[in-house]
Design brief:
alpha+beta; Cytochrome p450; four-stranded mixed sheet; three-stranded antiparallel sheet; 24 helices; 13 strands; 47% helix; globular; iron; monooxygenase; transmembrane helix
Length: 645
């Protein structure tokens, strides 16, 4: 019998004990006479009982107290619920819930609050198993309530035992790691400072160790050969990404969350949409957005130079590019600093409800509840707004049966074209549905917004701190445009190798995704000398691998020369040593798009402006991981001046 079977058996045994207890102490057998009350007669005082019987006040005959005579018609037993009031009794020192007739209320002078002004002991016998008996603390009335209470206690005990058993899983497999707490596992520890805590754990436990999010086991692997084995060689075993804490549409239908054959089918259809040739079709949109940024900065520095919030500037630019290229929206994210879409998307990444996250980690059943109420939250309404717009655009384009070529391309159109092409090759059966199109456009927008924005701000920060490197990039840009006497175009951008090196080094120092590159083990498998249990999440700690001193010379320094175009050097570098976009079959599909956007925008900015540090620039910069992406603790502030050419 498994662990869960043992827990359920224990709960059943406790339940049976509760029932037996209630039967022993319930009605029948505790008092003389039938029904659990003194006297005879089916549970109410009859003849010869221990309560007054005469005068019609109680059912049954006389006896026990003076007053003799045949009992009356049982007045109190027929009273309505509205006649139930609180009065005070001296019996056993308890406040009891008793029945009172209008006459007794008058006699006892009960005030409007239902409290007796004079405490006089008298007896009124309620119906068996009623709420009155329960509140009067009679033992026989606790049958059902005690059983329910004991069931709850038994289930709680079973849950605690099951949770502790689950949280010993990695220890049973011999995988070291920090001790988890009962409810949150190690989630709270990691939330405080993900980068530093993970550093401490790697130093203490080595290249393979485990921790828990609630009851979910997670195994961290920082050995390069083991990483490659997991993400590349054994990708058929570690195929699926780890699920989000709260899975909701449209995310669940995207490449981020799809599993198994469905993921493989959708990825196969969408891959051609992100080829280098297709990315070239979107370059004009990226270039136009970069020109808008140049104009906005020029307005700020009309007097010579200005201190600019590079973080917010990068977010507005990234949102402008991604909404136009992915959603076919014409928005003014850069011109309007309070754009509602930009503001609400920013809040998703920086202001996630930590209480909701913590409770979902502690009690996985709450994930279903939160997924149900999500559409009614502000985030959910934003999701609905975006998906509704996408569905309208898809429907409008589907009605255009003439198939006329578009002047410019966007990700949505490329996905539609890929779906139609796949359908023609599969005999009219589309490989993906409208649900997949909407979901992947949405995730492309959400993921591309934050990751590209933070990377852009980090690159500008490092170039401001290293002006000599900024000048090298500027000279390279000028050499391309001077030779052709033309404006910067797609081909020029592709030839900017020094800028490539700068971007690559910044992605090494500041990988956008720090601890979310993970896969789920579909079965027990040996990795790095340990057996990783089925269902465990295997995590690649990207930030920590990128800063290992045994892999990189002076790992914390900004040295773009690491990525010089040297075939021998590239071949010597381990495949898993540099993984800003992930590794293996599930590597980020938008990698080419992100790099092209970064190069295009940076080329335009560096060719027009000089970026330098100022008093408001935080050095050294503190980092944080509020959700899944790496961010500066404080917004990056830089001095920007017009370049004198």
């Amino acid at each position: 019998m498994g662990a869960k079977g043992v827990m359920l058996a224990l709960a059943l045994v406790l339940f049976m004990v509760c029932v037996a207890y209630c039967q022993r102490h319930g009605s029948g057998g505790r008092y003389p006479g039938g029904g659990g009350y003194p006297g005879g007669g089916g549970g109410y005082p009859g003849g010869g009982g221990g309560y007054p019987g005469g005068g019609g006040g109680y059912p049954g005959g006389g006896g026990g107290y003076p007053g003799g005579g045949g009992g009356g018609g049982g007045q109190f037993c027929n009273r309505k619920l509205s006649e139930v009031l609180f009065v005070t009794t001296q019996a056993a020192g308890l406040r009891a819930l008793l029945l009172a007739t209008p006459e007794t209320r008058k006699q006892k002078k009960i005030n409007r609050r239902g409290r007796a002004k004079k405490c006089t002991r008298f007896y009124i016998i309620p119906r068996p198993h009623s709420n009155e008996r329960l509140l009067a603390m009679e033992p026989g009335a606790w049958g059902v309530s005690t059983a329910l209470l004991c069931i709850v206690v038994a289930l709680c005990i079973a849950w605690v035992l099951q949770r502790k058993h689950q949280q010993r899983l990695l220890k049973r497999y011999g995988i070291p790691g920090p001790e988890p707490s009962l409810f949150l596992g190690n989630w709270k520890q990691l939330k405080e400072d993900r980068l530093e805590v993970m550093n401490d754990w790697i130093r203490e436990y080595g290249n393979v160790f485990g921790f828990y999010d609630g009851e979910i086991p997670k195994v961290v692997i920082s050995d390069l050969d083991t990483i490659k084995e997991c993400f590349v060689k054994e990708a058929h075993i570690f195929h699926d990404r780890m699920p989000l804490v709260i899975d909701v549409e449209p995310i669940t239908s995207s490449l981020l969350a799809l599993k198994g054959e469905e993921w493989k089918r959708v990825r196969t259809v969408l891959n051609p949409s992100f080829s280098s040739a297709k990315m070239k079709l979107m370059w004009n949109v990226m270039s136009a957005c970069g020109d808008t940024t140049v104009e906005i900065i020029s307005q700020h520095i009309s007097t010579g130079c200005a201190i600019i919030d590079v973080t917010r500037l990068s977010q507005a630019l990234s949102m402008d590019v991604i909404t136009k290229c992915a959603l076919a929206w014409q928005v003014d994210c850069q011109g309007n600093a309070d754009d509602p879409i930009l503001r609400r998307l920013r809040s998703i990444f920086l202001e996630v409800d930590q209480n909701m996250m913590a409770s979902a980690v502690a009690l996985p059943i709450l994930r279903k509840v939160y997924a149900w109420i999500f559409p009614f939250l502000s985030y959910g309404r934003l999701f609905t707004t975006i998906t509704d717009n996408l569905q309208k655009v898809i429907s409008a384009r589907a009605e255009d049966t003439k198939g006329r070529p578009r002047a410019t391309a966007d990700v949505l159109q490329l996905m539609l074209d890929a779906r139609n092409e796949a359908a023609s090759q599969m005999g009219g059966k589309p490989g993906i549905t409208e649900r997949h199109l909407v979901a992947n456009c949405f995730v492309f927008m959400a993921g591309g917004f934050e990751t590209t924005a933070t990377t852009l701000s980090f690159v500008l920060y490092e170039m401001a701190r290293h002006p000599e490197e900024q000048e090298r990039v500027f000279e390279e840009i000028m050499s391309q445009t001077t030779e052709s006497s033309e404006k910067l175009d797609y081909d020029h951008v592709q030839k900017l190798k020094r800028l490539d090196m700068v971007i690559s080094e910044c992605l090494r120092l500041y990988p956008p995704i720090v601890l979310f590159t993970a896969r789920v083990s579909s079965k027990d498998v040996m990795l790095g000398g340990y057996t990783v249990p089925a269902g465990a999440h295997v995590i690649l700690p990207t930030w920590h691998v990128h800063r290992r001193s045994d892999l990189w010379t002076e790992p914390h320094r900004f040295l773009p020369e690491r990525f010089a175009v040297d075939r021998e050097q590239r071949e010597r570098r381990h495949t898993a040593a540099y993984v800003p976009f992930g590794l293996g079959p599930r590597e980020c599909i938008g990698r080419r798009f992100a790099l092209l956007e970064l190069k295009t925008v940076l080329a335009k900015l560096v060719s027009q402006f000089v970026f330098s540090t100022c008093e408001e620039t935080e050095e050294p910069m503190k980092l944080t991981v509020p959700t899944v992406t790496l961010n500066p603790m404080r917004n990056i502030m830089l001095r920007v001046a017009r370049r004198e050419v």
